[in-house]
Design a protein that fits this description.
The structure is a homodimer. By secondary structure, chain A is an alpha+beta fold. Chain A has two domains: about 140 residues, 2-Layer Sandwich (60s Ribosomal Protein L30, Chain: A), CATH 3.30.1330; about 160 residues, Phosphoribosyl-aminoimidazole Synthetase, Chain A, domain 2 (Alpha-Beta Complex). An eight-stranded mixed β-sheet of chain A has the order 7-9-6-10-8-11-12-13, with helices on both faces. A five-stranded mixed β-sheet of chain A has the order 1-2-5-3-4, covered by helices on one side. The radius of gyration of chain A is 20 Å and the shape is globular. The two termini of chain A are about 35 Å apart. The interface between A and B is large, with 70 and 69 residues.
């Protein structure tokens, strides 16, 4: 919810006390300790007209993504997903083939990550499709990685290129004709990959300070880590990992790759903090993009010089 | 979903294998064994225009009921609820006061049963309100009471009067003027009581065969127990517990109390099977309404004589 989401969440928080030992609203997942391990739970609602358009994505792709974004919340804590729960409210014209094709896409990614669908709810809706996915995961007790553990001096990393999903969405909205380049980027938007193996490997290093997945774009997501951890950060814009495809596309269409990388979101890569030798402890690339600082500000640098960053791009002071 | 719900669920079931030891789609809750206890999970979606009308119920009442029907799913397995998760999709005109008043009602019942709200999602919707509640509960390992354990010869019980909620809904839809009687029945419809203490006490007797909560009315709900257990049942219509309020209301308005008791649903009392001395093992009333039989049929009796039951009431053969 663009406006008002946070004031409602604040209102909710004043009405509920989180029991000792549990983590409630405000992280990628809730954490509920049980015997010897923590249970992680997250839930996401997807609405036709807000999160997807039936005319712009196949039912299979929507099914894939509905599961993917929830699995990504488990990845963001370093957990292993154990089950999903799917509620579907469907208008009459989506109750047959559309629903079945949605399930085919949802089942495809569920099988890939070996996560059973264990329950849910189906109901009619008057007009729009509404989908809610709940996901349950597990993690060794006390080991889930929250947003609140970033420490001054840590390096900020991301697990992969940023901006591809945003470029794919732009290609869909601008109805660009199909080319291998366009199709690649649209694929990144429609079928994001939850970084589950990476999340577990990072948790197992026991060196990660804070972690979350990139859903809104790091310009917005990183602020959650900073607020929860009570720290600041400096981001070096020239270090943002950009795919060759994104660079080509931006050159062709005069798009701003930095803007897509920072604000378009939906990359579902992991954003995390840790010691600068963290990449040596895992077997996949980690891209350093900045540093955690003490001053509770988010500063943008370009080639080592402080810059202003806004919607129009960055400018030197 | 009136039509198609079950064919979609069948389609879903063919696409997902439930792992060994877990219970998936088809009962009140999914059951996920963990260390020494079972985790129960259920989820329900509520839509404006389908499940509630903003003009016919206060936001507080809708919030109460959204939580209540999910807590009732945990009660139906004999579990203890440990947390809920709330997703809200809100159109612009429901993002302020409506949402806050909804939370007030949701918080009221959550405090009453000491269940924290641990997470969720808020998003804008274009037009209608969509609410999804997920609930997590616990139960000693292997002790959750499913729908599949009814045995031939067991007595069928309900924990309280049937039809009050249906009469309350009828009073709302017919816009009956407020009287103590009308208000009482509307209250039963808008603020159902999940039978949590009763569910736990019944589970602790270790004598219950099958159990579920009454959401659609026993004429429909009982069939789930019969199908899952591979048995039949005889119901004695003269034994259905009817409240004094329901009887008075039906007399005043020439409504059919049996019909309301059997088919209106939303009573959220527990429907269960067990030995005929089960009432002696618990400290609340259990009303015997019939017997589990071998022949996989659901038979209706009235004062010991077999009757036909349909929408127009019952008739002797």
């Amino acid at each position: 919810m663009a406006k008002g989401e946070f004031s409602l969440i604040d209102f909710i928080s004043t009405h509920f006390k989180v029991p000792e030992g549990m983590v409630g609203i405000g992280d990628d997942c809730a954490i509920i300790p049980s015997y010897g391990e923590d249970t992680l739970v997250s839930t996401d609602m997807l609405l036709e007209g807000i999160h997807f358009l039936r005319t712009k994505a196949s039912p299979e792709d929507i099914g894939w993504k509905a599961a993917a974004v929830n699995l990504s919340d488990i990845a963001a804590m370093g957990g292993v997903p154990t089950a999903t729960f799917l509620s579907m409210a469907l208008p009459a014209d989506a109750q047959g083939e559309w629903a079945e094709r949605f399930i085919v896409g949802y089942a495809e990614i569920s099988r890939l990550y070996n996560v059973p669908l264990l329950g849910g709810d189906t109901t009619s809706s008057l007009r729009d499709i509404a989908i809610n996915v709940g996901v349950k995961g597990r993690c060794p007790q006390g080991k889930a990685i929250g947003r609140n553990g970033a420490k001054v001096g840590e390096t900020i990393f991301v697990t992969g290129p940023l901006g591809d999903s945003g470029a794919g969405l732009k290609a869909i909205l601008e109805q660009l004709p199909s080319t291998p380049l366009v199709d690649h980027l649209i694929g990144k938007h429609l079928r994001p990959t939850p970084r589950l193996a990476e999340g577990v490997a990072l948790r197992q290093t026991e060196r990660v300070g804070a972690m979350m997945d990139i859903s809104d774009g790091i310009a917005s997501d990183l602020r959650h880590i900073l607020r929860c951890s009570g720290v600041g950060a400096t981001i070096e814009l020239s270090s943002l990992p950009l795919s060759e495809e994104l660079r080509q596309m931006c050159t062709l269409h005069d798009w701003n790759p930095t803007d897509l990388a920072l604000t378009a979101g939906e990359d579902y890569e992991l954003l995390l903090t840790g010691p600068d030798n963290l990449p040596e402890l895992v077997e996949f690339p980690l891209h350093p993009i900045g540093t955690i600082t003490e001053d509770r500000e988010l500063c943008w640098m370009h080639n080592g010089r402080k810059v202003r960053y806004n919607k129009k791009g960055f400018s030197h002071f």
